[in-house]
Amino acid sequence: MKTLGNILWVLFGGWWSALSWLCLALLLAVTVVGLPFARQCLKLARFTLWPFGRVAVPDPSATKLGAIGAVVWFIPGVLLAIGYVVSGALLCLTIIGIPFGMQGFKFAGLSLAPFGKKIVSSRDVSRSVAAGR
């Protein structure tokens, strides 16, 4: 089911989202200061291209510089989050669009604070919760 959801996501607009993150990464990579932001954008481009079955979780190995990045990222993050919330709300107007709208809401939260997160499989999260970690 995840594969079908991902294929439909890519066909009906997920590639636009991934392409926009990729373009933003290329724009940010022009300067040395923008390289950490470009890295996060590339991570989100991969995530938005194939989102079903994967989640963003806090990364215990993340540095404390993520807090500085979050402050600098706030304005572009808010603009991206507004776009994801609007598209998520529009997708949730139909029964078929609800899973896709939920992905939009997931990306809205992630676009506000992309630093200090890593993308993992939903199965890995389920296994670690079951193991008590």
Architecture overview:
The two termini are 27 Å apart. The chain is built from 5 helices and 2 strands; from the N terminus they run ααβααβα. The chain is globular and about 45 Å long. It has helices spanning 2-28, 35-49, 66-91, 98-112, 122-131, and strands spanning 54-58, 117-121. The mean pLDDT is 86. Strands 1-2 form a two-stranded antiparallel sheet. It is mostly helical and 133 residues long.
- State the major sheet: 2 strands, antiparallel
List how many beta strands DSSP finds.
2
Multimerization status: single chain
Radius of gyration: 15 Å
How would you concisely characterize the structure shown here?
This protein is mainly α and 133 residues long. 70% of the residues lie in helices and 8% in strands.
Give the helix/strand layout.
Layout: H1 2-28, H2 35-49, E1 54-58, H3 66-91, H4 98-112, E2 117-121, H5 122-131
Antiparallel strand pairs: 1-2
Helix pairs in contact: 1-2, 3-4
What are the main properties of this structure?
133 residues, mainly alpha, two-stranded antiparallel sheet, 5 helices
